[in-house]
């Protein structure tokens, strides 16, 4: 478990250094075309060469990693927060509140999200901002944690300490926050990490299909432009391989980190039993 945690943390830390941190030191806006000579190979001046659009590939990659992580973290945090809150409320209150919220969860879960996202992206003609795309992704990602949290809350509300808190006059908000949520804290963190991967995968899929805003550098749009200008067939590996490897490393790093947290949760549960 320690090896997975250390390796996952190192990979995630590398992604943060390459993206959010390194992008602050970009000498020029990598979104601007024809800033440098086109199709240069890797050199000391241009670590990963330049693209067919005259962009420095390293700084473009840095901005792409930053935006992909920003989108993934923002959507995941909001979806997890909404899902946990609604799941706890539905499970604890029960009755009509539970039926209405469960109907809403199930309705969104059964809707195939990717085809609908493709439709919405097509309607926006690929010009939707990251905020709009993020809002659509939050809409389809909060019901999954909510459904799981509701099941746990249904069990926890029958415990003696919850009944004692209710008889003591605590509000529903305080009972949910103080009595129920601590049991789900570690799970919520693991779900948050897993949702980051889902968001990055969906955004990359939309960008690959040309349905995301190609003016905003993300790992998906970087791959899209590289394929559009046939970087692979032209042998310009420094353009297409870095974003592909970055996606793989981010997935591996977050998976190892999340898996180590899950193992730790199971260990704590076993000790408690």
Structural class comes to mainly alpha
Instruction: Estimate nothing, just give the exact number of structural domains.
Output: 1
Radius of gyration: 22 Å
Distance between the termini: 20 Å
Number of helices: 11
CATH architecture: Orthogonal Bundle
Helix content: over 70%
Tell me the number of strands: 0
Overall body shape: elongated
String of helices and strands: HHHHHHHHHHH
Q: Are there runs of 5+ residues with pLDDT below 50, and where?
A: none
In CATH, the homologous superfamily goes by the name MetI-like
CATH topology: MetI-like fold
Mean pLDDT: 85
Q: Approximately how much beta-strand content do the residues carry?
A: under 5%
Report the sheet with the most strands, covering strand number, pairing sense and barrel closure. Answer: none
CATH class category label: Mainly Alpha
Can you offer a commentary on this structure?
By secondary structure, the protein is mainly alpha-helical. Helices cover about 70% and strands about 0% of the residues. It is built from 11 helices and no strands. Helix 9 (about 185-210) packs antiparallel against helix 11 (about 235-270). The relative contact order is 0.16. The mean pLDDT is about 85.
Q: What are its keywords?
A:
273 residues; elongated; MetI-like fold; mainly alpha
Write a short abstract of this structure.
Helices cover 72% and strands 0% of the residues.
